[in-house]
Description:
With 631 residues, this protein is an alpha/beta fold.
Amino acid sequence: MTDQNSSSAYSIYRRLLGYARPYKTHLIIGILAGIVAGGSVFGMLQGIPTVLQLLDSPVVAETSASVPDDIKYQGAEGEVVDEKFIKAIKVAEDHGIPVLREDGTLTWQVMLIGIIALPLFVILRSAGVFANRYFMRWVGSRIVCDLRNQLFNNLQNQSLKFFGSSDVGQLISRCTNDTTVVEQVISTTIADVVRAPIEIIAAVIFAVSFSSDNNLLSIVGGIGLFFPLCIVPIIVLGKYVRRYTRHALMRISDLVSRMHENLTGITAVKAFHMEAEEYARFQGMNGQYFRKIIRALRAELLMSPLVEAVAMLLVLAFAIVCIINGVKWYQILPVAMAAVIIYKPIKQLARINTGVQKGAAALTRIFELIDMNEVVEESANSIKVEEFKKSIIFDHVDFKYQEDGKSILNDINVDIPAGSVLALVGETGSGKSTMANILARFYDPTDGKVLIDGIDLKEMEISSLRRLVGVVSQQTILFNDTIAYNISYGTKGATQKEIEAAAKMANAHEFIASDPDGYERVVGEKGFVLSGGERQRIAIARAILKNPPILILDEATSALDTVTERLVQDAINKVMEGRTVFAIAHRLSTVKHADQILLLDGGNVVERGTHDELIAKDAHYKKLCDMQMVS
């Protein structure tokens, strides 16, 4: 199972790396800075043995030319100093820099160089660490920004069928919480991913080199055989971190979904006095999320202590073996310091793996949405249409929401001449709105086709169709912005004069102008500061400003009082002039003058004709009119 998780995580992050290609310059700079910062460990370790040897046994310089080079510099106890140190002294002296006094102590020139070099070394390393962290985090944050953009864009392009079967709260959570997890993981992990392995490699190379020069290779090698034990906790616990993080993200998605549903339906909650029950339900779901988070945290926090325990045991074993073999302290200490330097990046690897597993869990959910493809596809050779001239034809149209589901429309055939009004009547669920949605191409027919001027909607450029068709629905959608913005929504470049003209035609200008903020008044969430009739007239003004040749009216007056209905109906009559209208009606009085009326029942057209013709048939339409007292 670990292998599968590792393979899956590898493929996920390989895909994520593709998002970094546009920012390869920043990425390369960050990687190079990490290599410099990590590689500097090797240079620092190289100087430690010599300093320790000087502290243990001052060097005495033989000045006689007859003394062989290999014993010209020796310790006070007669030991020959390390050959590398001898070479360093010769190089310095060849450049006129005296290194040692006669008593074996360092000269002031060397001490001055050391005082100057140390800050330079620290500044260089600090600059490398800063550049590494900055550029890698910049790349990480930019990648997450692009992921959010792609997520939003892909969701925007999905069909209404997708949103009909999806939980909006879940979608919001994936776009916010999941991407936040990825952003946190990348910002805290990606810089260490570059630097930590370099530091480990540099320290290991030094330890092997130093051990070889001091006959410690067998001891270090023996201890090194057990070094992979430090990685075992990282691998074993990593899979639990990923599993529990994925479960936690699922729970927080449920939590966000619950909050969205509750706050959207807060009127019903208060009307039925369900606040306590809703709180109890939310509290239970929040508790489930808490338990998943704690499980992931438990596995995450166990990693570092287990890695530390294994590392300490290996260091202790090394010290014991060295003491038994009589190894001197200045030979042990450089290797021990290398082990200390390795220890920090190894701990970072535990944190890195935790982050990698968390990120993999979140990225899996993000890529699932990015890969979602329930879009209404546009033909590769789509036809651009500038105007509507002749007719709309439904040609043997069938529709089902699911392949094995109930049939919503059955063999619908209708011809709607340009400039005419088609009214759809029938009981709820008879298929009226579905026909409108297919005309707007929110859905595609399961069978048959819809033609505009002889062109199949599937072959038409979607943007062209959207320009031809305007919609005024019963559930008016307004955005939390100004009235002017909502009226001009979908009409780019509309002037204030054009916006006001559309509002006047929609009988909306009077109530808009009566407010101090006028057209700059913010309508609030879903337009809650406006009445139902005011919202409808804003929607009608929007359709007037767009000026589409084809207009879909989805029972735009059914929820209004009589006075407001007259205002709205008058506005609708204005917007209908000179347009082809597809009207869905429950109040039959609003469609008496339609050129053609279709009565739908169970997805079938059971009656068709004008109002007078259907009344004369004395069938189902006549009964509906009698019930509504329409003559």
